[in-house]
Amino acid sequence: MSFEKLGLRTELLRAVAAKGYTTPTLVQAKAIPAVLAGHDILAGSQTGTGKTASFALPVLHRLSLDTYRQNKPRALVLTPTRELAVQVEESFRTYGKNLRIRSAVIYGGVGMGPQVGAFRRGVDLVVATPGRLLDHAGQRTVDLSRVEILILDEADRMLDMGFIRDIRKIIALLPKHRQNLMFSATYSKEIRALADSMLKQPVEVDAAPRNTTVKTITQKVYQVPSNRKRELLSTLIRDGKWQQVLVFTRTKHGANKLTQQLLNDGVSAAAIHGNKSQAARTRALSEFKSGEIRTLIATDVAARGLDIQLLPHVVNYELPHVPEDYLHRIGRTGRAGACGMALSLVCEEERKQLNDIQKLLKQTLAVEDAPSGFKKEAAAPTPAPSSRPRHQDRRPSEKKVVVEEEPARKKSFRKSGEKSSRSARW
Ligand code: AMP
């Protein structure tokens, strides 16, 4: 299958070729002809599968067919986060560089003025986060009554983030007759309900089996007490000479703290989360992309949608509470067919999360031995979970000696000397 066969106009094919894409990904091969034919779409597509181009290319094609300039948005993309909005709009500009389609990206946390200016000058396409778009609609700085195509990108995440009411309010402002494209990495009852209410006889595009991970990602688990996670991470980064690693923490506080600790260890790092200003987030991301900093530490919300090509390593410093977030996290590596490594540092308190993730994946994750640089200290048993403070890793760095794996008296840790190919079966 080649891009030429999909029915896209030559201006778009030239842009695709300039990006170096030769073959459409699965979701692109399925979605592009359906969108060009005017169908609604429900796509179960994971991050990293090329889903942005699967809607951006045919939407640009359709917009370009009508050259009448009405200055009001004709296509609207809703995304859960600012970063994703920025990246999606960048993709539209990249793919649409040989066409005369005007786009704008709209998100909160920055002044309204330039966004109002863009609307006033006239745009064909808007990529927006829901809250700020509603602010504009409320102030009548944008008129959504001419939207012909609505795209919900990462719809599952938008629902997780509580945007359902905003989405419904926005839909109420759009013309009833329009094309709807909905993309979601995971399916839940709520997603189905939204799809049922919004989509008309959608073509279902299932580019990857639901709730399974992209095959090119190697997943491993390190069992490690929580108070030694930082040390293990530094060792892995240094010994493995990792140049680019995205690390997930559960909280903003945790992200800040880990960043500081890695900096103290001499590992370049920056944090990206919702409490950071947009400027700081953008700077951290660009320094990470350019290789100035090796480690980007992110919370789930902030990391959603980050597109960093060929990201080799993703680390779950703490497992997410919602198992689906594991999929979103590791989808940052192994993008568009490249190989990637997703490592999880799992302490005993996280057994339940690990079990839930393995259930979702229908797969048992391999347990890896810690690298030789990570000192196996004399066996002083880890305290029983009940006697351990909940946020043990928030205590100042402890010198207490603990074993790197759980002592034999606990079922969950294997006896030393067992092969590294064992599985995490807790
Ligand atoms: P996405 O799933 O939209 O976030 O895309 C993931 C990555 O795949 C991005 O870096 C795209 O530039 C890249 N990509 C998209 N389509 C293709 C393709 N057909 N061939 C190679 N890379 C692609």
Describe the structure.
It is a single chain. With 426 residues, the protein is an alpha/beta fold. It folds into two domains: 3-206, P-loop containing nucleotide triphosphate hydrolases (Rossmann fold); 217-368, Rossmann fold (3-Layer(aba) Sandwich), CATH 3.40.50.300. 36% of the residues lie in helices and 14% in strands. It has helices at 10-19, 26-36, 51-65, 82-95, 113-121, 130-138, 155-160, 164-172, 189-198, 229-239, 252-264, 278-290, 300-303, 323-330, 351-361, and strands spanning 41-43, 75-78, 103-106, 125-128, 149-152, 179-183, 203-205, 217-223, 245-248, 269-272, 295-298, 313-316, 340-346, 366-367. The strands form two sheets. It has a seven-stranded parallel β-sheet, with helices on both faces. α14 links the parallel β12 (313-316) and β13 (340-346). The longest helix is centred in the first third of the chain and has 15 residues, at 51-65. It is globular and about 70 Å long. 46% of the residues are buried. Residues 378-421 have low confidence and may be disordered. Residues 21, 23-25, 28, 47-53, 307, 309, 335-336 line the site of adenosine monophosphate (AMP). Adenosine monophosphate binds at residues 21, 23-25, 28, 47-53, 307, 309, 335-336.
Q: Main sheet, how many strands, which sense, barrel? A: 7 strands, parallel
Number of strands: 14
Shape label: globular
The CATH class label of the largest domain is: Alpha Beta
Q: What number is the mean pLDDT?
A: 83
Give the SSE order as H and E letters.
HHEHEHEHEHEHHEHEEHEHEHEHEHEHE
CATH homologous superfamily placement of the largest domain: P-loop containing nucleotide triphosphate hydrolases
Number of domains: 2
CATH topology of the largest domain: Rossmann fold
* Radius of gyration (Å): 23 Å
Return the CATH architecture of the largest domain. 3-Layer(aba) Sandwich
Instruction: Tell me the span between the first and last alpha carbons.
Output: 43 Å
What are the bound molecules?
A: adenosine monophosphate
Helix content: 25-40%
Q: Tally the helices.
A: 15
Strand order within the widest beta sheet? 3-4-2-5-6-1-7
The chain-level structural class is alpha/beta
